[in-house]
Specification:
Elements (H helix, E strand, L loop, with lengths): L2 H11 L6 E3 L2 H8 L6 E4 L4 E5 L4 H7 L3 E5 L6 H12 L3 E4 L6 H10 L4 E4 L3 H7 L3 H22 L8 H14 L10 E4 L19 E7 L2 E2 L2 E2 L2 E7 L4 H20 L6 H15 L9 E3 L6 E5 L12 E4 L2 E4 L3 E4 L2 E5 L4 E2 L10 E2 L1
Parallel strand pairs: 3-4, 5-6, 11-19
Antiparallel strand pairs: 1-2, 2-3, 7-8, 8-11, 9-10, 12-13, 14-17, 15-16, 17-18
The protein binds zinc ion (2 copies).
One zinc ion binds next to loops.
């Protein structure tokens, strides 16, 4: 039994629950190291991964402290879990309600008639919010790959290239530099497309006088990085330049406010209160989100957040201004909160870079 799984069971014990069924990919990985298909049953004495023939060897390589039950005709995951619970004398099972379809849940219920199902709620996600040294190291390595890829990309971008070409090249550099894959689909949005915070790279060529927003991340040991830089293609108008300077100032103010013990919503407010009078309504998303095995996790910097920053939290700081017809600017770093402040592993320059 590893420490992460024990912590989960410890939390569940208050509700009289001593068994948890984990079905969400990132959570299975967090508790075991295993990245294949299947599900995980956490019991007081052991952890069992239930999967089919294709992944049995993978379990033995990745999840050394787990047992493996091979499912096959006649041995369904539901049936195997039922026997394991019976052996352990347990009649309550925690499960992840937001990761199971209604049909799947009904299947589990039908196969385990004497078992009471209790929600795991977001307990695994809350545990995952506090990153340990190994997780921080993976996130830092992932951020470095993204920064190095951007530095290489600067020598590649020319006016006339399409957003798609630029995004594809950036993805290629990240993979060459050791990324396991994209943390999410890379965003490359220039000119008027820049006002779409989640624009999909298009066949539109980038042109002189436009801003180009690049939002992207790498992955190391499953851990994501996330960063955004907005660069100038040729000389941009004073209006665009002013937007850039305002977004950068908002980001620097928010970063300066970050330390353990502050309310996450107050960090959001620092950036929002600065941008709102200058560009009313133009910063419509939250300031940042947690990053880890999943690209969007808790805690977040938003107007609604009730969270308080703690050492081990990893959160993005990404203010933006989006003006339809004109374009947009976003600048995004990540803060890895420490005992007395934070580390920012996104070291790419933030002064407006100009590509001619
Ligand atoms: Zn991003
Ligand atoms: Zn982000």
């Amino acid at each position: 039994m590893n420490a992460r799984a024990s912590r989960l069971l410890e939390q569940l014990s208050a509700e009289g629950v001593r068994a948890a069924l984990v079905t969400k990919e990132e959570n299975i990985r967090y508790f075991t190291g295993y990245t294949g298909e299947g599900c995980l049953l956490i019991l007081p004495e052991k952890q069992v991964i239930l999967t089919d023939f294709r992944y049995v060897e993978q379990v033995s390589r990745q999840a050394l402290d787990c047992e493996c039950v091979r499912t096959r005709a006649g041995v369904t995951p539901e049936g195997a879990v039922a026997s394991l619970l019976q052996e352990a004398g347990l009649t309550k099972l925690a499960y992840e309600p937001y990761k199971m379809t209604v049909e799947e849940f009904q299947g589990w219920q039908a196969a385990l008639p004497g078992v009471e199902f209790v929600s795991l709620a977001n307990k695994p996600e809350v545990l995952r919010q506090i990153k340990d040294r190994g997780e921080i190291d993976s996130i830092c390595r992932s951020a470095k790959i993204a920064c190095d890829a951007l530095a290489k990309l600067m020598g590649y971008i020319r006016p006339g290239m399409t957003e798609k070409e630029i995004a594809t090249e950036l993805d290629y550099y990240m993979l060459k530099l050791g990324s396991e894959g994209n943390a999410f689909s890379t965003i490359a949005a220039a000119g008027p497309n820049g006002s779409l915070p989640h624009a999909v790279p298009s066949d539109r060529p980038v042109q002189k006088g436009e801003l180009l927003t690049l939002d992207f991340g790498a992955k190391v040991n499953g851990y994501c990085s996330d960063m955004t830089r907005t660069i100038a293609i040729g000389k941009v108008s004073d209006e665009l330049r002013a937007i850039y300077d305002a977004v950068l100032e908002a980001q620097l103010r928010a970063l300066a406010y970050v330390k353990p013990g502050v309310n996450c919503k107050d960090v959001d407010a620092v950036a929002r209160d600065y941008l709102e009078p200058l560009y009313p309504g133009a910063f419509g998303h939250s300031l940042g989100h947690g990053v880890g095995l999943f690209i969007h996790e808790g805690p977040g910097f938003s107007t609604r957040s009730e969270a308080v920053l703690k050492p081990g939290h990893v959160v993005t700081v990404e203010p933006g201004v989006y003006i339809p017809g004109l374009g947009g600017v976003r600048i995004e770093d990540m803060v890895l909160v420490t005992e007395d402040g934070y580390i920012n592993p996104v070291t790419a320059p933030k002064e407006l870079i100009k590509i001619d």
